[in-house]
Amino acid sequence: MTRLNMINQCFCGESCEEILSSLEHLATQVQEKWVIDAITSMKSANPLGLKIFLRTIREGRSKNIEQCLETEYIAISNLIAGKISKNYYEGARPMLIDKDKKPQWVPSKLEDVTEEMVAKCFSRSFTEDDDWLPLQLPTKTSGTHVGASKL
Predict the structure, then answer these.
(1) Confidence class of residue 151 from pLDDT cuts 50, 70 and 90?
(2) What does the DSSP assignment read for 44-92?
(3) Do 22 and 9 meet the contact criterion of CB atoms below 8 Å apart?
(4) CA–CA gap between residue 34 and residue 143 (Å, rounded)
(5) What is the overall mean pLDDT for the chain?
(6) For residues 37 and 82, what is the distance between their CA atoms, to the nearest angstrom?
């Protein structure tokens, strides 16, 4: 089996849990460093972040670049605002402040991240908050600048 076939087989899963399970199963069949690295990376990453990333990638397949940028802006704005979790800042704490390299993700497991939590990350409700501006992509004729946080 080629590496591309292995990647396609593992990453065609519908959920992060299925992808991780496929990688773990593959690791019992082949001795490939990239498989172990992928498992290690997924297990140490922010579980909510993994699910947000997977949804963004999957939905982005059917969107144009402007729609993708708007979706990513909404998700990252909600994460930075801490409306769903404080994991955005927890990612920096163990690397830059305490230097213990042991983030305490909440929730700590993929299976504890609900679809409702992920959906909230894509909510446009942050635009009702005075601290955040909606994304405004420049047009060729308007010269409008991209909206950004006032923080």
Answers:
(1) very low
(2) HS-HHHHHHHHHHHHHHTTS-HHHHHHHHHHHHHHHHHTSS-SHHHHHH
(3) yes
(4) 44
(5) 88
(6) 29
How far apart are the C-alpha atoms of 67 and 138, rounded to whole Å?
A: 13
Q: Which residue has the tokens 């690397």?
A: 95
- Give the whole-angstrom CA distance, residue 78 versus residue 64: 22
CB 50 within 8 A of CB 42: yes
| Long-range Cβ contact pairs of 49-56 (< 8 A, separation 24 or more) | 49/79, 49/87, 49/91, 50/16, 50/110, 51/15, 51/16, 51/110, 51/113, 51/117, 51/118, 52/79, 52/118, 52/121, 54/15, 54/16, 54/19, 55/118, 55/122
Task: Compute the chain's Rg from CA coordinates.
Answer: 18
Q: Is 72 helix (H, G, I), strand (E, B) or coil?
A: helix
pTM of the entire predicted model: 0.82
